Amino acid sequence: MTSLLVQLTRPLYESLATTYRAALGKKLAHYGLRFDDLQDPLKDEDVAEALRRLPPDVVVARNCRLRRALDLSLKHEGLPADLLAKQTPELSYLQEVLEEVRAERRERALLGAPAPYTRIYYD
């Protein structure tokens, strides 16, 4: 019964997910962001470790996108039309490294070893 329900609702779910992702991509492009920019390194240690492993130029570009988006949001503006046409919110720069970090964490958990990169402190 459960598999029948899943088979019946899957097309609807996939359609809604595609529509949501397109709408979110449009909003992200309005501010010049990418999907991976929404990952918060303060809330997820794996994201923080993945960002540490990225090349410095990729991290600097991410930080510039976040600063620009914050500035545009505070000014209640969006990107100019010429920059808006160049935006690629679906382009991923973090997912591959993040999957590698999570695979390492799963492997360490199976071996019973602690993660060596738990260095995030909250006040």
From TrEMBL:
It is a peripheral membrane protein. InterPro entries: QCR7, QCR7_sf. SUPFAM superfamilies: 14 kDa protein of cytochrome bc1 complex (Ubiquinol-cytochrome c reductase). It is found in: Mitochondrion inner membrane. Pfam families: UCR_14kD (PF02271). The lineage of its organism: Eukaryota, Viridiplantae, Chlorophyta, core chlorophytes, Chlorophyceae. Component of the ubiquinol-cytochrome c oxidoreductase, a multisubunit transmembrane complex that is part of the mitochondrial electron transport chain which drives oxidative phosphorylation. The keyword Nucleotide-binding does not apply. This is Cytochrome b-c1 complex subunit 7.
